[in-house]
Give the backbone structure.
Amino acid sequence: MVYKQAIEAAKEHFGKVLEGQLERVEQLKKEQVWIDFEDIRPIVIGILGGDGIGPTIVAESQRVLEYLLKEQVDSGKVEFRTIKGLTIENRAAQLKAIPDDVLAEIKKCHVTLKGPTHTPERGDGWPNIESANVAMRKALDLFANVRPVRLPKENIDWIIFRENTEDMYAVGNQGINVTEDLGIDFRVITTQGSRRILEMAFDHARRMGKTKVTVVTKANVIKTTDGKFLDAARVVASRYPGITWDSWYIDIMTAKLLDVERRHEFQVIALPNLYGDILSDEAGQIQGGVGTAGSANIGKRYAMFEAIHGTAPRMVREGRAQYADPSSVMRAGAMLLEHLGFTDLGSKLHKALDICGQYEKRVIMTGRSTGATSREFGDYLMATVQEPDMEARWELYSVA
Ligand code: IPM
Ligand code: MG
């Protein structure tokens, strides 16, 4: 048989992938407990600027966080720490998705606020290292990617729970070219990995008084892995009798997000990694652009907060980095506050962002010189968040 050798080599490679994943499943079986920020002092917040528009927009989010947390910083409850070196230049020089010394610094923080980092793709001039995002999600076991989308004027309040460590991403850089003409990638879905993201989605629904969780797969076609995710959904849902759930296929789900009559009926959405990547960009666009959408990467021990979008190389190339919308990382900052237990501060920041970005819009961003700069938007947001009656004003807008 002509391909015997190629097949044997592929089998051996596949065997190694399986060994790694079975080991991972064993790790997942060991219950981990959630970190409790109540007793931690200081809570260390690491700041990672990232690449492209990252440093510009992260600076604006850091500014508002430092303002809101001033009391906690003064009393020693919270500490900000800048971490250098998570740049494409340094990562390429060290041929590492995350250089070891940078990862060690990240692990000394409880949470991080991170700018987008460049993900090399074949032929773009950078060595083909793994995405820093994907590597960090795996290294810190940040299994839940939580992406809220709010459009109060349309009564939309979605929250997407995207599984963050499995699916096509688990071994995305371990695919194999069996021959020159045949490439195979591997999709990984585990019972444990599915259950924990679904549990988080259902827990969130229960805590926030939501009534429905929508589970999205393509289980009619991708029977084994999506089938397993859906099986996990049935098991988890049975433990939440007060919450209904429905199952949608990803194709019709992307269509339904454009159905202005019905889309407000979605509440909590839970789905595997790649579908979640795509659906959350669509949802972010509906909110007003991916530049307005923040994202939380949450694990039981660590958490990382970031924009849902990338480094915007086109904006940088055309000299427009200073016009990047910082609301995405500011939303991420609001989620960071909520995660640490500063729920009132988080809610305040969300409301200020609603006012500036959706209701009042006194400063308009266009991503170019026809609109405001990140700094100008940051100034506007800072002024808004400092108004004593800001939250009352938000109430008025939100019922109007
Ligand atoms: C995201 C991004 C990342 C992803 C990229 C940068 C690897 O698109 O956070 O959604 O695909 O997860
Ligand atoms: Mg994405």
Summary: The mean pLDDT is 96. The chain has 15 helices and twelve strands.
